[in-house]
Specification:
This protein is an alpha+beta fold. The chain is 36% helix and 18% strand.
């Protein structure tokens, strides 16, 4: 059988196809790499003898009573959707997410709502407290008659201004959630 006859055989053509496809793919990948080139920098270019930049940690400090008060008032206004004008004043610009005061007053705001009980106290535990910032966990009970369950939330506050203009604003609000771990016996 001559070479020409064997190349016409369907069996030989299938074999050449199976060999040729990977060779073609490698060739295309090589052309792309050569065409684009190496855009990454060399490890040697990123090494330096300069000392590492270590972020300065704020000193811990007891929670300021004004910070606790701002957090509580935020919950009773923004979270409960009561007195939205006052809640605007208690909310840090980062948490407002670019909302104008007029948009805020509509009540369609980026704050997770909760039907806060006016009669049940909301216990707060301080997770971390610094001179200019604090993070707390707060347990909220719903209003009587609400079908919502009690819930725990994270709340963060930050001091702004200096001297007599210093005040605390809420810069973080989110539900405290845990990810349930499935049971080995779950079906």
């Amino acid at each position: 059988m001559s070479l020409r006859e064997s190349l016409r055989s369907p069996r030989t053509q299938r074999r050449l196809l199976w060999i040729g496809l990977p060779v073609l793919a490698i060739g295309v990948a090589g052309a792309i790499v050569l065409g684009i080139g190496d855009t990454g920098s060399k490890v040697e270019d990123r090494l330096t003898n300069e000392p590492a930049v270590v972020p300065v940690q704020e000193k811990k400090a007891p929670l300021a009573s004004a910070a606790r008060k701002a957090a509580g008032e935020f919950i009773l206004t923004a979270v409960a959707r009561r007195n939205l004008g006052r809640s605007w004043e208690l909310t840090h610009p980062t948490l407002r997410e670019g909302f104008t005061r007029a948009q805020w007053l509509t009540g369609d705001i980026p704050i997770v709502p909760y039907p806060v009980s006016r009669t049940e106290p909301s216990p707060m535990s301080v997770e971390e407290s610094h001179e200019n910032s604090a993070v707390m966990r707060v347990a909220l009970a719903p209003e009587k008659g609400s079908e919502v369950k009690s819930q725990i939330f994270w709340i963060g506050v930050r001091a702004v201004g200096k001297g007599a203009d210093r005040r605390w604003l809420v810069d973080y609000w989110a539900p405290y959630t845990t990810i349930p771990v499935p049971s080995a016996n779950a079906s």
